């Protein structure tokens, strides 16, 4: 008898076993990848939301600590507030409320949002939110809507600034692309 015929239990995989393992791995991966992408998108949304929420709190804090009217808005090339919140957003003193930094002083610049989200303000077209030295909104209140570039993900968030100067966050938890506010208002992404 040859040595080859005695080696039937060599511990290797048959082609059928290997195909079964690859099939199971492929099915598992097809389930895991979309969930992982959703997790990454949720984390990106949380990061951008926290960045803007922190910027609003920072503007309010600077207003109180400096005893000056503070503004938060994106600035154009001439350092005037613009309503394009997809530009970098600046926090600065604006004592005369002319929508320009006093003496070109800027306290903080928040980078523009990443390419997975766009940001829109609800400030009546002014693009700026002012905080008074007492921390209360000075003038009109405003809000910011954070929208995903891929609207099918329904990962939008609404940051509303109250008259008292505090930011409140509401997210589209049911994924229908609409945020229904307690007073009956509806927020959607453009």
Written overview of the protein:
The chain is of the alpha+beta class. The chain has one domain (14-188): minor pseudopilin epsh fold. 29% of the residues lie in helices and 23% in strands. The strands form 3 sheets. A 4-stranded antiparallel beta sheet has the order 3-2-1-5, with helices on one face. It has a 4-stranded antiparallel beta sheet with strand order 4-6-7-8, with helices on one face. Strands 9-10 form a two-stranded antiparallel sheet. The longest helix has 52 residues, at 15-66. The termini are far apart. The model has no long low-confidence stretch (mean pLDDT 86).
**Computed Rg:** 26 Å
How many discrete domains? 1
Please, what is the CATH homologous superfamily?
Answer: minor pseudopilin epsh domain
Strand content: 15-25%
Order of strands, widest sheet: 3-2-1-5
**How much helicity do the residues have?**
25-40%
What are the low-pLDDT stretches, counting only 5+ consecutive residues below 50? none
Q: Please tell me what the overall shape is.
A: elongated
What is the number of helical segments per DSSP (H or I, 4+ residues)?
2
Q: For the terminal residues, how far apart are their CA atoms?
A: 80 Å
So what's the CATH class? Alpha Beta
Q: Predict the CATH topology.
A: minor pseudopilin epsh fold
Q: What's the order of the H and E elements?
A: HHEEEEEEEEEE
Structural class by sheet pairing and helices:
alpha+beta
> How many strand segments?
10
For the residues shown, what is the average pLDDT? 86
Largest sheet: 4 strands, antiparallel
What is the correct CATH architecture?
3-Layer(bab) Sandwich
